[in-house]
Amino acid sequence: MSHKKKKKQSEKRENDEVVESTEQEETSKSQKVTKKVYNKELLKLSLELVKLQEWVKKEGLKVVVIFEGRDAAGKGGAIKAITQFLNPRVCRVVALGTPTEKEKTQWYFQRYVPHLPAAGEIVFFDRSWYNRAGVERVMGFCTEDEYKEFLRSCPEFERMIIRSGITLIKYWFSVSDEEQEKRFQERINNPTKRWKISPMDLQSRSKWVEYSKAKDEMFAYTDIKQAPWFVVHSDNKKKARLNTIVHMLSRIPYQNIKREKIELPAIQKDQGYMRPPMTDQNFVPEVY
After folding, report:
1. pLDDT for 218-234, tens place per residue?
2. 51: which of 18, 73, 91, 244 is 20 to 30 A away, CA to CA?
3. 275 located within any domain
């Protein structure tokens, strides 16, 4: 077979693969998850998350799960879906605010280290040390030297915490510009969600391309074998949450722990106890 003919066949296969991939992506986007199906699947997965929690506690495992992505990409909603039935003493959510003046003078990773898990804990970072590669880079909150040093040191920092026995999972929630705009408009017009939008969020819209470039460069340096990035398509919130939970469960081997039967003891008998008058207490008015 001639070289030219082989090239044509190769190009045809590549084109067919692109078309097939595009069709699958469009089909996936068009398939919606109903509220009924979502709630049913979420409950089923939540039972598995409880089993995972108990296994982590029993075996003394240490787990860190990082949630990153653009504003309104669905990170917070995914974390709430995961943690709603979990014990907050075992599964902690860390969402740090703006660093203090003192923290700005520290080693960059220093403010995150105290929040890393002890044995038997899972920590969910709602944004993390990757702020430096994202918002700080794009908005000019760090110097060029600080940014370059982060790209050099971050992979080593992550390898170090993995060697210490911590399981590290990193998720990037990917949202389209159309869907982000839709969610921003909803936040602006809904009084119960208005607090979610900040001046920084608004500026992120005008710097969409800069954020894209920053994300690409961040992936190039920090998508390492020991701690790869996992991208979550999050235009559909329900599917994104379910897919993330299924994937997270697959990344941490666990077993179901057989629990001892719990028997509720009988209530203590009244042996001359006298309650103080009800009029001595203040009660919440029963409005409903």
Report:
1. 999 999 999 999 999 99
2. 73
3. no
